[in-house]
Design goal:
heterodimer, A: about 300 residues, mainly alpha, three-stranded antiparallel beta sheet, 16 helices, disordered C terminus, B: about 45 residues, about 70% helix
């Protein structure tokens, strides 16, 4: 295999990312019989966390959403109640940290079904709106308040905390679980009230935003992306930009699904590591490194293609 | 230069995960995951 063939072989997975996203979306929700029964999958493997915002009340979900599991741990952590289980969420936190230590925020770009849905909806022709960078800090506020502080500090009439993010915000739960379960299950249909309409309204707003802006939920709201992003600078997988080759043409910025200028900060917490920029760069300036192996996109100028 | 930080982080978090598993947290997560989450679907 000559050098050119080798480079092309490396390019292939990046350019078929949508297929990987579709495969993971299906793979994480593979228990299809549940869709015909109006129930959710209840197998013993469902305690395995998945590195994606994939609601475990989606009828066919095979694994546990780590953000839901984390809130449940914090909500149930009550030292003053003898019935409380006193689980600290170590399993979930350790899982998130281990995944983050290896690949950082890469699951957002390749695995998360809700990220995939946003990218698909953004393909609908419409005026497009760029998001100001300061909005990306809002996801840390959501993480600190809705996922950690409120479940820990605010208790219901039974003395337990609630899953605030799932209850008041998460549009993934509404889309993947709320709508299908209410359609399929007559008992649940009878329980619809204000909260259901609130979440449907929020989902509609989010869907409109997905069409207008690139992955706005991932960038401004998602607490899972906020956690994984914290590991981008310290993970085994690393992005790198060769300043000598970079011409600041901004092709990477134009193609980026989360609108970052990777040449300013290759391992920014905002990057979902989809590697689209590696394919976009015609100058071979952007590369990634994993376990000591570095891959660079082909320099098209050298091949006379530009 | 070989970076040590990611390996340290990985070992620490794997240790935390194993500690959680030994404390029976898998069962806790499983119990929640196999129950319809009314909050998630907007009925809670």
């Amino acid at each position: 295999m000559d050098a050119k063939d080798k480079t092309n072989a490396v390019r292939k997975p990046r350019e078929k990312r949508a297929w990987y996203q579709a495969a993971f979306a299906l793979g994480l929700n593979a228990w299809l019989p549940a869709w015909f029964k109006g129930e959710i999958f209840q197998g013993g493997v469902k305690g395995v966390c998945v590195p994606a915002l994939n609601c475990y009340s989606c009828p066919s979900a095979l694994g546990a959403c780590p953000i839901g599991a984390l809130q449940n741990s914090f909500g149930g952590l009550r030292f003053n109640l003898s019935v409380a289980e006193k689980k600290f969420g170590l399993y979930v936190a350790g899982f998130l940290g281990a995944v983050g230590s290896v690949v950082g925020r890469m699951p957002c770009g390749w695995i998360c079904p809700f990220g995939f849905i946003q990218e698909l909806l953004h393909k609908i022709p419409s005026p497009k709106v760029r998001l100001p960078h300061f909005m990306s800090y809002f996801r840390y506020v959501v993480l600190a308040t809705m996922v950690v502080a409120l479940p820990l500090l605010i208790v219901d009439q039974f003395g337990f905390g609630q899953t605030w993010f799932c209850k008041w915000i998460c549009p993934a739960g509404t889309l993947e679980a709320g709508i299908p379960l209410v359609i399929l299950n007559a008992d649940l249909r009878g329980l619809i009230g204000f909260m259901y309409y609130w979440k449907i309204g929020l989902l509609v707003l989010f869907i409109g935003w997905f069409i207008l802006s690139r992955r706005p939920f991932c960038r401004t709201v998602c607490p899972l992306g906020a956690i994984f992003g914290l590991f981008n600078k310290g993970s085994l997988f690393r992005m790198a930009v060769d300043d000598e080759k970079c011409t600041l043409c901004d092709k990477c910025y134009e193609d980026c699904p989360v609108e970052i200028k990777i040449y300013e900060s290759p391992n920014t917490p905002d990057c979902v590591r989809c590697l689209k920029c590696v394919s976009s760069c015609k100058f071979g300036a952007i590369s990634y490194e994993f376990l000591g192996k570095r891959e660079v996109a082909q320099d098209l100028r050298l091949e006379g293609k530009t | 230069m070989r970076r040590k930080l990611p390996w340290v982080l990985l070992i620490v978090f794997l240790g935390i995960m194993v500690a959680g598993l030994l404390l029976g947290e898998y069962k806790t997560v499983l119990e929640k995951a196999v129950t319809v989450c009314l909050d998630c679907i907007g009925i809670g």
